[in-house]
Amino acid sequence: MKADRAGIAAAARSLAAGGLVAFPTETVYGLGADATNGAAIARLYAAKGRPAFNPLIAHVADTAAARRLARFDAAAERLAGLWPGPLTLVLPQSPDNGVADLATAGLDTIAVRVPGHAVARDIIAAFGQPVVAPSANRSGHVSPTTAEHVLADLRGRIDLIVDGGPTSVGLESTIVACLGAGAVLLRPGGIPRHAIEQRLGRSLADPAAAPEEDAPRAPGQLASHYAPRARLRLNADVVRPGEALLAFGKKLPPGAEAAAAMRNLSDTADLVEAAANLFSHLRALDAAGAATIAVMPVPQDGLGEAINDRLQRAAAPR
Range(s) for CATH 3.40.50.11030 in the chain? Predict the structure, then answer.
């Protein structure tokens, strides 16, 4: 579809309906989904064949919208002066910002940017919500810089492509974290280091220079995960006394009726629904106060691989 008024309106309608829309940014073509809709984001992961639930970048129409999602320190306020453009900031989340846990991989930080492409901003403004938009290609393939590239990779997997011509930068955004310990460069990209350092008036730190426990977390940079306070016991076929239960499917294991708390990723064993519920259900069970969460087996098919990857990381000794 052309990037005219009708195309922008159609893209906004599709996003509002939970659809997946590819559109141009100045960096590469992004695959957009409603950042507040966990089921739409799960569909996005499935379409891309993305192997793990990494944090996604929330794209917004302007800096005012970014401030509703995240808390800005002095460094972030300075760097926001480079927007719109190919710069992503990783910041502490604002409370109750509406962004789905699956978009942030359950973290307390959020990656946000204001794209420099007018078509991208027009679509997001018409939609009226933040939009996650990783590159519109199958995971592991070359990032797309034309609508034709998107069609070749994702034909039949997404709902709409808005053709705005070739992208101008052709390189993903630079990612900088501002989390209270100085600005840290997480990923080089479309804005060079010197331009960011000039804006800040000081040098950027590299992730390797930060203590491991303070290392920021961002798309395409670190394999971070939401780790609950409770211990996770994976592939549980019985619920032990005092345990909470993270269920999957209708058939529950012995002891489920006495679980300290229970959430079901999907009563119908739908992996897209399970992915959408994963982080919010973990948080809810963790808040219930049980020392251990028994996790029923989840198949490895499709999104199950990514679900199990996150569960295994959350269960790892800390």
Answer: 231-315
> What sign does the dihedral 124-126-130-134 (CA atoms) show?
negative
| pLDDT tens-digit readout, 243-272 | 999 999 999 999 999 999 999 999 999 998
- Supply the pTM of this predicted model: 0.82
Measured CA to CA, the distance from residue 218 to residue 215 in angstroms comes to 10
Helix-helix angle 5-16:118-127, to 10 degrees: 50
- Give, in words, the CATH class of 231-315: alpha beta
Other CB atoms within a 10 A radius of the CB of residue 240 amount to 13
Beta bridge partners of 295: 246
End-to-end CA distance of the chain: 49
Edge to edge, the sheet with strand 292-295 lists 231-233, 292-295, 244-247, 262-264
Q: Mind giving me the DSSP string for 40-97?
A: HHHHHHHHHT-SS----EEE-SSHHHHHHHB---HHHHHHGGG-SSSEEEEEEBPTT-
- CATH fold for the domain made of 5-214: DHBP synthase (3.90.870)
